[in-house]
Inverse folding.
């Protein structure tokens, strides 16, 4: 069964109630006896994650995103998260990006602070925000990590509604905002940025998508000010109920591509290179990754309610290839309300695939890479379409939670309209996570997924208005854990406690300068037993969030690594001999294996 794509806003001022923007009818709302997106538990489901937020001290943080009623669209899209080892101690730290309020924008109150939590080990985290200088104190919308100056310390780009920031890591536990000095103090509503060395000069460049042009001087109608009894009035609605307006009906904004020059500054080259988004689509998430395996970094941009854009890189010049590739629309030829973006080779064929999250009453979308820059929407065939329909998805990631060598999928969910809780529509404002286990290839070579149920009181059973999601191995036990940032509440820190005994290998890459120091854009191929896996080092993606940079490979029952090849982002190829498993290794470009810890399993 196929579902129509629904945009974030389903009625514009001047459009009759009961019709959607663009002329797609919303139809009659189905009535359900219970919610399908919250409170769903199973007595037979395995316990995969424990919620350890309370013991970690992260519960002291709460992400602010406007008022409770969500009168304006700017109040619904914040609360993202980055994972990074900012102090190079081998433990992954957490940066939670905060939103703000209309009153703060007007100077009536203070902006809330974003927060940096240093990982102390044993699931304890210390708030070091003030010492680090990472408060942001603006309406944060997205975050991307990259070592832009190649000094060996991870830097942080925060895209804001307002002026964005580039936080340079000073290497002593502190950061300095250098955005204005280097040319990245851009103003507007910017979202999920991505670092990448698209011109292969060894320096990270950055792409910054934009969402809408939104000003306090010209706010759309608030749903709290709608008199539904007044004939002739027009307002934005969802199934006949007044809701905040947008993005359709609001003016989109053009994207930006910055090339880093040899003096460490950034120049905007988007229009020159054809990636300025002259259609002014509603950009949410993006990623630099080598899609066609020509050793140049390509660019995928996920847009809300408008087509996705795929820019193929040919020697530093880009060609937009979204429609010819099949990735611009879903299998029904429709635009979708694209939010989040997962990057990974889920079917182990050596080609990078994508999972895109969308609005409720529509499915998320799985795009299989068929080679030659062609993609097929295999969402329903793969088994992840139907279960996702009632959910409104945001952050997502491919990751191998059970270390069997096949990448699974996780999705953070949460509605944008609090009013949905008042009706029997089967959906809810707070929603549970979705976890899909990759069941591998069948006899015909087709790879599918099965939904993993939520055990009572487990990490999957909790419901939140989640937005950003990131994956990391916070305790270095070889099992990947999860963090989500949630609107108007504390984050959720989920420890992987699955019963899986699969073997694993964690790989960290360090570029020589020919490739960026953090090796963003590099690709690792690992062979263990019968499986050959691919993983890419990427900046950004998810929903305007950041996973850890080290790559965690699950290898199942394999007892050794049969081969490991790195294609560095400068295009060079290098093979490494790995003698141990269930450990973390560091690979230096041109110098071999730098470090290999003792087995930790």
């Amino acid at each position: 069964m196929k579902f129509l794509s629904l945009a974030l806003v389903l009625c514009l001022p001047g459009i009759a109630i009961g019709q959607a923007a663009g002329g797609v009818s919303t139809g009659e709302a189905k009535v359900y006896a219970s919610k399908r997106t919250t409170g769903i538990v199973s007595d037979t489901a395995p316990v995969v994650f424990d919620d350890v937020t309370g013991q970690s001290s992260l519960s002291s943080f709460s992400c602010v995103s406007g008022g409770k009623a969500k009168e304006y669209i700017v109040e619904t899209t914040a609360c993202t998260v980055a994972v990074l080892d900012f102090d190079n101690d081998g433990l992954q730290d957490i940066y939670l990006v905060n939103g703000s309020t209309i009153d703060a924008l007007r100077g009536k109150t203070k902006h809330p602070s974003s927060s940096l939590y240093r990982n102390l080990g044993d699931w304890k985290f210390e708030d070091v925000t003030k010492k680090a200088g990472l408060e942001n104190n603006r309406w944060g919308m997205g975050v991307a990590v990259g070592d832009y100056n190649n000094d060996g310390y991870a830097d942080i780009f925060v895209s804001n509604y307002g002026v964005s920031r580039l936080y340079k890591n000073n290497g002593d536990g502190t950061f300095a905002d250098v955005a204005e000095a280097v040319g990245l103090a851009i103003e507007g509503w910017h979202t999920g940025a991505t670092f990448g060395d698209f011109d292969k000069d060894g320096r990270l460049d950055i792409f910054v998508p934009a969402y809408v042009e939104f000003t306090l001087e010209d706010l759309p109608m608030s749903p709290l000010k709608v008199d539904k009894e007044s004939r002739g009035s027009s307002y934005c609605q969802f199934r006949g109920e007044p809701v905040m307006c947008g993005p359709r009906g609001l003016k989109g904004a053009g994207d930006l591509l910055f090339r880093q020059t040899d003096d460490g500054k950034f120049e905007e080259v988007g229009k020159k290179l054809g990636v300025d988004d002259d259609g002014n689509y509603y950009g949410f998430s993006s990623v630099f990754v080598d899609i066609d395996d020509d050793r140049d970094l390509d660019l995928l941009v996920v847009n809300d309610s408008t087509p996705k854009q795929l820019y193929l890189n040919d020697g530093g010049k880009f060609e937009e290839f979204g429609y010819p590739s099949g990735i611009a629309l879903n299998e029904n030829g429709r635009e979708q309300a694209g939010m989040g973006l997962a990057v990974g080779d889920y079917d182990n064929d050596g080609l990078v695939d994508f999972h895109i999250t969308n609005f409720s009453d529509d499915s998320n979308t799985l795009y299989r890479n068929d080679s030659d820059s062609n993609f097929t929407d295999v969402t329903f065939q793969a088994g992840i379409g139907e279960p996702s329909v009632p959910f409104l998805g945001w952050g997502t990631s491919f990751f191998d939670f059970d270390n069997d060598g096949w990448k699974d999928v996780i999705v953070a969910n949460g509605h944008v309209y609090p009013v949905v809780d008042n009706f029997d529509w089967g959906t809810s404002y707070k929603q549970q996570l979705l976890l899909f286990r990759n069941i591998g290839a069948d006899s015909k070579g087709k790879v599918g997924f099965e939904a993993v149920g939520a055990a009572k009181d487990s990490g999957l059973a909790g419901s939140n208005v989640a937005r950003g999601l990131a994956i990391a191995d916070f305790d270095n036990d070889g099992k990947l854990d999860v963090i989500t940032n949630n609107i108007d509440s504390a984050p959720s820190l989920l420890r992987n406690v699955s019963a899986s005994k699969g073997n694993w290998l964690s790989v960290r890459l360090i570029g020589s300068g020919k490739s960026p120091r953090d090796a963003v854009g590099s690709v690792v191929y690992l062979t263990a037993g019968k499986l050959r896996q691919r993983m890419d080092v990427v900046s950004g993606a998810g929903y305007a969030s950041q996973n850890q940079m080290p790559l965690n490979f699950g290898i199942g029952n394999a007892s050794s690594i049969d081969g490991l090849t790195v294609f560095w982002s400068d295009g060079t190829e290098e093979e490494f001999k790995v003698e141990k498993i269930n450990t973390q290794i560091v690979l230096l470009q041109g110098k071999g294996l730098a470090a290999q810890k003792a087995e930790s399993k």
Q: What stands out?
A: The longest helix spans residues 53-56.
